[in-house]
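Record type: monomer structure entry
Structure origin: computed from sequence
Chain ID: A
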Amino acid sequence: MGCVNCTLQLSPYNIQIFPCLSQVILLDISFWYTGLTKTRLAEISMAVAEQISWGIIILRSGGVVAFPTDTVYGLGCDAFNKQAVDRVYQIKRRSRDIPFPLLLSDIHQVTEVAESVPEIAWILMKCFLPGGLTFILHKATNLPDFLNPEGDTVALRIPNHPVTLALIQGLGRPLIGTSANISGQPSPVTAEETKAQLGTKVDLIIDGGRCPGGIESTVIDVTLGMPKILRRGLIKSEEINKVLAEYGKRGDR
């Protein structure tokens, strides 16, 4: 393996907080790849696998990483690390009254961060996750207050991208998953576009190629009875409405 600094997009923050990143060492990827299917593993090159391993090390150490998803490039950190979450707000120049969504790796994790999940939400999740649909749910009482200090909801989704899933599984807890842009600017879909906006403000930019979706996820609120689409995105409203219509017919029987 060559010098890591020649392979990865590292910021000066790395050298101060993660001095090991300037050393040439052999990475053990076993702590994340066992959670992926053979099909998913086949989508990850060795070069990207190395970056994923560094990304997990940085995330576990409280750092901030940019990464490809099935929608657009994401910017994330350990969702339960307040200092790291604060940094993401600073990097994005985002208002503190707009909570970040959480990225999960498996549908079974939903009840760890949300409660009172309605039946229709589970049906929609089984239809569209992993994928580009973000759900607004009632947040679990054990979630840290800093994730949404003024509200009782949480936004979450399960991304359909092997790099993102590997990061979440390697971290072992939910990942903050917001677009890797300065608030108000276009959402990047390549590592180059991400670097152009964020530069060395982040600790690592994983270059996993162009994001297949190219647009943000659709956002749906399922906390107020009938689901309501709050933002149009990757999953078309017609697809969602078709599922809702079938659910309604079942209720009429």
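Annotation 1: DSSP finds eleven helices and eleven strands in the chain.
Annotation 2: The first helix runs from residue 4 to 7.
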